[in-house]
Design goal:
By secondary structure, the chain is an alpha/beta fold. The protein has 8 helices and 10 strands. Strand 9, helix 7 and strand 10 form a beta-alpha-beta unit. The radius of gyration is 17 Å and the shape is globular. This is Alpha/beta fold hydrolase. Belongs to the AB hydrolase superfamily. Pfam families: Hydrolase_4 (PF12146). One of its GO terms (molecular function) is hydrolase activity.
């Protein structure tokens, strides 16, 4: 399936259909440059679908099968496209009950959550409390980007163009107030051995959030959930946690 980004180009997505009794529908926001077919996105969504929660996962601008230039995106665009993906689900008659975000996508999910009508529950996996945490990934080209306006950045076996507007937009994004104003059940899942986004980020998100809030430690997991069974375990935990909220009347 495809739907337009807020900046125009079409975004590509996949809906993992629920098996057995349909418990609800969800949306997954992938990490910084990862895409819908990354281990975390595909394995978590497929496991949730096996447990009765149908999931939409989609590629952000210029990633995977989506059109457009990645450099024309930003944190703001990622948030707005997450909201647009939820609107697409509502239009097809399967409104989003559960929003799940991994890594930078977790930060975007927090920012998008209050703009998704009828959302029942929000779960983050290995999310940073500050979106500008991603600067650590492109710090080697940051000075040139700010000076020249843009610069090529080699990441994940491909070359992307990082633009000044992207960097500046990320720096303007602040989540702490948003987290404190969330009026949704929140699950914060994080590995204590995550070397990419430290578990102190999970502690801050949890501390800022209101109840009902829950924290789950993903012992032994790496940031990308690549090892065997890690993503499925995270999905199973999210599924069990969300069960009580999926049964409640629409807010």
């Amino acid at each position: 399936m495809r739907f337009p980004s807020v900046v125009g180009p079409e975004l590509a997505g996949v809906i993992d259909l629920p098996e057995g009794e349909v418990r609800g529908w969800g949306l997954f926001a992938h990490g910084f440059t990862l895409g819908k077919d990354s281990p975390a996105a595909s394995r978590v969504c497929k496991q949730l679908a096996r447990e009765g929660i149908g999931m939409l996962r989609f590629d952000n601008l210029g990633i995977g099968d989506s059109d457009g230039d990645w450099g024309d995106g930003s944190f703001t665009v990622k948030v707005q496209d997450t909201i647009r993906a939820a609107a697409y689900m509502a239009e097809r008659g399967t409104p989003v009950d559960l929003l799940v975000g991994h890594s930078w996508g977790g930060a975007a999910a927090i920012a998008a959550a209050t703009h998704i009508p009828g959302l029942r529950a929000l779960a983050t996996i290995a999310a940073p409390v500050d979106p500008s945490h991603v600067e650590r990934q492109y710090d080697s080209v940051l000075d040139r980007v700010l000076h020249e306006g843009s610069h090529e950045w080699f990441v994940g076996g491909r070359t992307l163009v990082l633009k000044r507007a992207f960097v500046e937009d990320v720096r303007k994004a602040h989540l702490r107030e948003t987290i404190g104003e969330l009026d949704l059940p929140l699950l914060v899942a994080h590995s204590p051995t995550d070397t990419t986004v430290g578990i102190d980020n999970a502690a801050e998100i949890f501390q800022e959030a209101r109840h009902p809030r829950s924290f789950i430690s993903l012992e032994g997991a790496d940031h990308l959930l690549t090892a065997r069974g890690q993503a499925q375990r995270a999905a199973h935990i999210i599924s069990a946690w969300a069960d009580q909220y999926l049964d409640q009347p629409q807010p």
